[in-house]
Write a structure and sequence with these properties.
7 helices, single chain, alpha/beta, about 230 residues, binds adenosine-5'-diphosphate
């Protein structure tokens, strides 16, 4: 079943730079997809349009039946409930502990305390952080902080997890541990994962679908891809 369809999408920023040209993609529910390409090739632009941080200039992006390109600002919350986002710099709330950082996403949608507790503990177990529930972000390693960010992104049980360079600030060993967490989420929960990355070792090791952008255009789309050395 299809989860995402990108149809003839173009993105031109206000300064006149065209970041993406006539992009077409289809991503099925449960897929794990890497988006690769040189710096400036349009990876972040594509990902930002999926969670409606940016809007395409032309074309459509359909996610779980929602036309994201047409979605009015007042309805963006409906999309955000269907997806989780993980960033390179974690974006945790520094004054909240691990439990509170993860619970926050459920408190804002009005879930009751007992259900919140059950869900938060379940996802913290899944990312391997059950022992650190009372720690604050500045007491955690980079890898642990990213696990918290992943737990927060999936606590609402989204269909789609979008990751923008999630291992960009981590060493190779920690990066691989984070990839194991993402693979577990993909396999156990069936969450569709789209991950923009520069990391050749990760892409080559995991052998997932690889979408390669080059100067705003789709260059390759391979089911069991590896980093192509041309052009990067
Ligand atoms: P990547 O994530 O692959 O590095 P980006 O999507 O960030 O690529 O950028 C693609 C192109 O769009 C680049 O030429 C970049 O300079 C430009 N760009 C990105 N964001 C903006 C913006 N907010 N305003 C203007 N140009 C932008």
């Amino acid at each position: 079943m299809e989860l995402i369809r990108v149809i003839n999408v173009e993105k031109q920023y206000k300064n006149g730079v065209t970041a993406l040209y006539n992009l077409n993609l289809s991503i099925k529910k449960g897929e794990f997809v890497f988006v690769i390409g040189a710096s400036g090739s349009g990876k972040s632009t594509l990902i930002k349009m999926m969670y409606r941080e940016e809007k395409p200039t032309k074309g459509q992006i359909i996610i779980g039946g929602i036309n994201v390109a047409k979605l009015r600002n007042g309805k963006v919350y409906k999309l955000r409930r269907k997806l989780g986002v993980v960033f390179q710099d974690f974006k945790l709330l520094p004054k909240l502990n691990v439990y509170e950082n993860v619970a926050f996403a459920l408190e804002v949608i009005g879930m009751n305390k007992a259900d919140i507790r059950a869900r938060v503990i379940k996802v913290l177990k899944l990312v391997g952080l059950k022992e650190k529930v009372r720690s604050y972000p500045d007491q955690l390693s980079g890898g642990e902080q990213q696990r918290v960010a992943i737990a927060r992104a999936i606590v609402n049980d989204p269909k789609l997890l979008i990751c923008d360079e999630p291992t960009g600030n981590l060493d190779p060993v920690t990066s691989m541990e984070i990839m194991q967490v993402l693979e577990t989420i993909n396999r156990k929960l069936g969450t569709t994962i789209i991950m923009a990355t520069h990391d050749r070792d990760i892409v080559n090791k995991l052998k997932k679908r690889v979408i390669m952008l080059d100067s705003g255009q789709l260059k390759n789309d391979y089911m069991e891809g590896a980093f192509s050395y041309e052009g990067i």
